[in-house]
């Protein structure tokens, strides 16, 4: 989310959203600081503010598809889709969707997994937004982007509520693509003002052309 660009700089909603997210140490295994958005969902104002912030950003972008990543992308995606007049497409874990699917495997901070999407849910040329609660390595979002691009959709942006401070995207953003102000600006704002709230633009071509392991493994 571009706090300065869209007038969110200093917005008190951001701090309240951040504070509503519980951090659980050593879950699901030692060393992981688990960012628990279920406490955000319990806080009606913080939950609504989170959705509203995304809706304000995406309502005029001509987005026809909001693709939510199982499971936690399902908690934010449908509300955003309804509010911006888009359809919601679930990107599910393996063997959950009953119809014909396409699949994309990826590596997680604590394991490996796979996302699937129904064939025919998204048409070539559609403008898509990917929603999830959190980006850690970016592997999940990379898989989501791949699924959508494989069926000819254009991924306009990916939006997450939480960006982990150790995310390798910081490196990607500041060092690998120093000329890309968009990235630099986004993440500068995230770290200074947004804390746990980010949104970032997909630029799969650039991700691919630089061998950043966290992104390239899913490509
Ligand atoms: O950026 P990454 O390293 O790919 O990690 C981020 C993903 O990990 C979490 O989901 P998880 O796979 O744990 O599944 P869940 O939502 O079903 O618990 C989170 O909700 C993201 O989808
Ligand atoms: N630290 C974390 N907290 C919550 N979900 C995650 N998914 C990957 N890393 C995570």
UniProtKB/TrEMBL annotation:
Pathway: Purine metabolism; AMP biosynthesis via salvage pathway; AMP from adenine: step 1/1. Signal peptide: none annotated. Keywords: Cytoplasm, Glycosyltransferase, Purine salvage, Transferase. The keyword Cell cycle does not apply. The keyword Ubl conjugation does not apply. It catalyses: AMP + diphosphate = 5-phospho-alpha-D-ribose 1-diphosphate + adenine. GO terms for molecular function: adenine phosphoribosyltransferase activity. InterPro entries: Ade_phspho_trans, Adenine_PRTase, PRTase-like, PRTase_dom. It is found in: Cytoplasm. HAMAP family: Aden_phosphoribosyltr (MF_00004). Belongs to the purine/pyrimidine phosphoribosyltransferase family. This is adenine phosphoribosyltransferase. The lineage of its organism: Eukaryota, Viridiplantae, Streptophyta, Embryophyta, Tracheophyta.
């Amino acid at each position: 989310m571009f706090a300065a660009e869209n007038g969110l700089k200093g917005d008190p909603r951001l701090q309240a959203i951040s504070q509503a997210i519980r951090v659980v140490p050593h879950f699901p295994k030692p060393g992981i600081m688990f960012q628990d958005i279920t406490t955000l969902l319990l806080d009606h104002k913080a939950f609504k503010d989170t959705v509203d912030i995304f809706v304000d950003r995406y309502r005029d972008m001509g987005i026809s598809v909001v693709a939510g990543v199982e499971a936690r992308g399902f908690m934010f995606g449908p509300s955003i889709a309804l509010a911006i007049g888009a359809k919601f497409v679930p990107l599910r874990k393996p063997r959950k969707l009953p119809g014909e699917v396409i699949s994309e495997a990826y590596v997680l901070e604590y394991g490996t997994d796979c996302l699937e999407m129904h064939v025919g849910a998204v048409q070539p040329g559609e403008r898509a937004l990917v929603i999830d609660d959190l980006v850690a390595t970016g592997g999940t979002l990379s898989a989501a982007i791949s699924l959508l691009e494989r069926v000819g959709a254009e991924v306009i942006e990916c939006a997450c509520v939480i960006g982990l401070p150790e995310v390798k995207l910081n490196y990607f953003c500041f060092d690998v693509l120093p000329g890309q102000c968009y990235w630099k600006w986004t993440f500068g704002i995230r770290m200074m003002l947004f804390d746990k709230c980010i949104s970032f633009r997909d630029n799969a071509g650039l991700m691919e052309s630089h061998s950043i392991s966290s992104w390239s493994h899913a490509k």
